[in-house]
Amino acid sequence: MKAWIYAYAFFIIYSILGWVCESTYVSVPCKHFINRGFCYGPYIPIYGFGAMIAVYILIRFQSMPILVFLGGFVLTSVLEYFTSWAMEEIFHMRWWDYSHRKYNLNGRVCLLNSSLFGIMSVFVVYFVHPLTDDLIHSFSFLTLEKSIGVFSVVFVTDIIFTVMELFRRKHILEIVQTSMEAVQKSYEKEIFAKLDEMDQRQRQLEKQRQRLVNEWNLFCQRRLQSLVEFENWMKEHPEMSEQLDMLHNSMERLKKYRDSHISHAFPKRKFSDGFMEIKEWLDERNQ
Hints:
Elements: H1 2-30, H2 45-56, H3 65-91, E1 104-105, E2 109-110, H4 111-137, H5 141-236, H6 240-255, H7 261-265, H8 273-285
Antiparallel strand pairs: 1-2
Helix pairs in contact: 1-2, 1-5, 2-3, 2-4, 3-4
């Protein structure tokens, strides 16, 4: 039981030291203080667990610093990856993302941070923990128990309120997501309805265009047929040739009057379509 009390004390101290390191690490580049902790209080539990790995596992390899570094590199990376995955699964939120850094694994761990954790493991085993161990043992066990008891009440209360707040936030985010999906579905439904209406309108216009083309072709065919019929009729009535020649000569005489007073008085006058068609036919016939 006594060993567990001391282990818990180490966990508390390293959680607080981790908060100091992490907050300093992110605050200095931003030039203002940032409380980096998951909780409201000045402690980050993941650093406490990471230090426990160094204190109770890696310290056994104290005679081989390279193994301490490699062990800290690997074990703390596993801890960070699992913590990131678990918190995302529970709260539907990614708390840190290293995707922008080189040599990362799903954005949860990266080479730089894992290397820093390996260095911190060496630093804890060889420098920090001896001082921390002396500090803890400088207090009486009763004082240590009371201090840990007070801290536990604050820490547990903090964890409860933090988790409650995160679940409330998660609930709000789910409501927002549901509302956005509903709005998006309504918008897409209206857009698709308009696109369908435009498609139907386009098909109707295409049908109308095709109908007009067919009517125009039919009109041209009939017009051509009537001209052919007229040509044939003229061939069957050669006596009409003299009348047509007279008509053509009359039209030619009309051209002489185009510079007359009437022509200048009514410059926009024009013959009827039927008359002009006969004139053009006669001109073509006499070529």
